[in-house]
Amino acid sequence: MKRALLIIYLITSALASFAQASVEAKISPIEMMIGEQAQVTISVQADENAKVEFPTFKPRQELVPGVEVLDAQRSTDHTLTLVLTSFDGNLYHLPPFKVKVNGKELKTADLAMKVVEVEVDTTKMDQFYGPKDVQDVPFQWSDLSLSFWLSVLLLVLIAINYYLYLRLRDNKPIITHIKIVKRLLPHQKAMKEIEQIKADKMVSSENPKEYYTKLTDTLRRYIEERYGFSAMEMTSSEIIDRLMQTDQQSLDELRQLFMTADLVKFAKYSTMINENDANLVNAIDFINQTKQENQPTETVEKPQLSEADLRSQSERRVLKTVIWSLVAVSVALFGYVVYNVYQLLY
Fold first, then answer.
1. φ, ψ at 161 (rounded to 5°)
2. Residue 32, SS3 per DSSP
3. Which residue positions in the chain have pLDDT lower than 50?
4. Which among 131, 225, 259, 315 is least surrounded, fewest beta carbons within 10 Å?
5. Do residues 344 and 139 touch, judged by C-beta distance below 8 A?
6. What is the second-level CATH architecture of the domain 22-116?
7. Which residue from 148, 146, 292, 306 is spatially nearest to 225, judged by alpha carbons?
8. Tell me, what's the pLDDT at 158?
9. What per-residue confidence (pLDDT) applies to 242?
10. Which residues contact 11 (CB under 8 A, 6 or more apart)?
11. What is the pLDDT of residue 102?
12. Any alpha helices (H) in the chain, and if so which ranges?
């Protein structure tokens, strides 16, 4: 008796669960333009433990002729969402969807979907064009590979050029100042020294050796600068012989002056004041007769740079040369790449 009651209870519960299960389908939107999308939601009202089996759909599958299924996603155990589209304007009838709940097949209500076409003004057909054929790619990688790698090389050159520019900027230039020095001409120097001899009253000095030493040294320096040979290192006779080859003026008086000076310095010869005066006058006459006045009185002196400064200047010159060379190459590469791309595109 108890077993019979249990069987009756189970059958009654099963029938009650079947009676409570329902399935519903909704579409949104009902009306859409060609190519747009609509969603169909299929939901099942049943016990949460009920076994629900939805129909399966594949992408691009036609639900009905003209209506395609783009996607089918089961959001919950009791809900299935379909994404539909159509490319033909029409009013479509969507048949009921079949769902199994605990093995029992249930159906949704019928659905309708309207697809609206784009209105075309047939009086202006020349403004509309049909679909174009599949176009070939205008160029291949082999056409662009050279321009691509040259562009990479161009970027590398720009980076190197920027690095060299920073090196050049940090390597400060060596600024040298050229000095213009005013100088006395040889005869001006000699006359200045003779005036000093006069001022020191060495003509009447009791030390004739000092007088003649200074007087002959003055003449030797003058002759050395005036005629360009080492008179300071030559003997009196060698100086006279050398002057005989270049100048014949006042050599007798100059020979007498040097002879007297040698006697005073080496033979302790004593001279008179008038003799000293005469030799001084002879020295002045020789200078005045042989002087060259139309000579530059200013000389340009350039500072001597150290080895480090010379290396720095040399490095700057090299950097400038390399930078400008890279700039020229970069400009040429850029022009070639632009021209090549232009040829491909047009």
1. -65, -40
2. strand
3. 18
4. 131
5. yes
6. Sandwich (2.60)
7. 292
8. 92
9. 83
10. none
11. 86
12. 2-20, 141-170, 186-199, 208-227, 236-244, 251-267, 273-290, 307-345
